[in-house]
Write a structure and sequence with these properties.
This protein has about 120 residues and is of the alpha+beta class. The chain is built from three helices and eight strands, in the order αβββββαβαββ. Strands 1-2-3-4-5-6-8-7 form an eight-stranded mixed sheet. The two termini are about 25 Å apart.
Length: about 120
């Protein structure tokens, strides 16, 4: 999975996704190089990549870092040849439902992992 994170490294206008450890990307603010969050990724089914967790430090929320990280994730995944993204909304974090919908993902019917909701987005 180290290669998975390495293939998703990408730089945006305000943040970049930087491989941190296998299956994990750091969300790094370009202005000062500070690590402000993380994106945990897993391979899914055929052509599918899973955003298991996108977490931005609480003090950094509300400034667009999470939205830019999600857009960069989709861009990098598409460029790496993935055709579908899946994201998890944990049941304890209700705002993640709205977040993933704003990012162009649609909810899937049925219960997701740990009682949450799965979201999906086609890239092709």
């Amino acid at each position: 999975m180290a290669d998975l994170a390495g293939n998703l490294a990408v730089r945006g206008e305000r943040v970049e996704l930087v491989p941190a450890r296998p299956g994990s990307l750091a969300v790094v603010r370009l202005k000062d190089g500070r690590n402000i969050g993380r994106l945990e990724v897993l391979p899914g089914g055929l052509g599918e990549l899973i955003a298991w967790e996108l977490c931005i430090d609480e003090a950094e929320r509300g400034y667009g870092a999470g939205s830019e990280a999600a857009r960069l994730f989709a861009l990098a995944a598409s460029q790496a040849g993935w055709t579908r993204l899946r994201a998890r909304a944990h049941p304890q974090f209700g705002l993640s439902v709205y977040f993933w919908m704003r990012m162009g993902f649609r909810p899937l019917h049925g219960e997701g992992p740990e009682g949450g909701i799965w979201f999906v987005r086609r890239l092709t």
